[in-house]
Write a structure and sequence with these properties.
By secondary structure, the protein is an alpha/beta fold. The protein has five helices and nine strands.
């Protein structure tokens, strides 16, 4: 399967790190992001980058880190979502952190899974059919700067990786809603 992962920030970089070992070469992964590694990305400890990668494109830094850790080659595309056609992929993973980009990968042809946070310190892992694009976080709160952020983000990325790996094996679409301490499995529109 040809997979596109959109957004290489906190969720995207950790999700990639956790997902790649389970893909075991059976799937092609392309990273998409147009951002560069900033000092705040490293200081918070929530993104999988190192101090020597400051000012590098996130997709290239993450591509390098994946190769160093797992000897796995993945593709990196430094671009904006408007510069590519996500419909050319078999599966799209949305880890974008803003309304405009999230909306660009909503209601497209391939299966799409969305992973994201709200300014209420909640998270959602949802499939496109049940997904409502949230408005941008406008409270000024940065999830990466809250106490316990690294553990919370890693936990959501791990749950996302398990959900995606399960889908790739079974085509079953599980979804989750939660916060830093609890989560609920959502089956279609029914809470289980």
């Amino acid at each position: 399967m040809n997979i596109l992962l959109c957004g290489c920030g906190a969720l995207g970089s950790n999700l990639t790190r956790l997902l790649v070992p389970d893909l075991r070469g059976a799937h092609s992964l392309t990273l998409l992001d147009d951002d560069v590694v900033e000092e705040r990305n490293i200081i918070a400890g929530t993104q999988w980058y190192t101090p020597d990668q400051l000012d590098l494109p996130k997709v290239e830094a993450l591509q390098y880190n994946i190769y160093q850790a797992y000897q796995r080659e993945i593709l990196a595309q430094r671009a904006n979502i408007i510069d590519i056609d996500p419909n050319t992929y078999d599966f799209v993973i949305d880890c974008f952190d803003n309304y405009r980009a999230r909306n660009m990968v909503h209601n497209i042809k391939p299966p799409v899974i969305h992973l994201g946070f709200s300014d209420q310190v909640t998270f959602e892992i949802a499939w496109d059919e049940q997904y409502q694009v949230p408005s941008d976080i406008d409270t000024g709160m940065d999830i990466c700067e809250m106490p316990g952020a690294a553990a919370f983000i890693t936990r959501v990325a791990a749950l996302g990786a398990l959900t995606i790996e399960h889908f790739l094996r079974t085509t079953e679409q599980r979804a989750y809603l939660g916060n830093a301490f609890t989560h609920t499995l959502v089956d279609a529109h029914n809470i289980v």
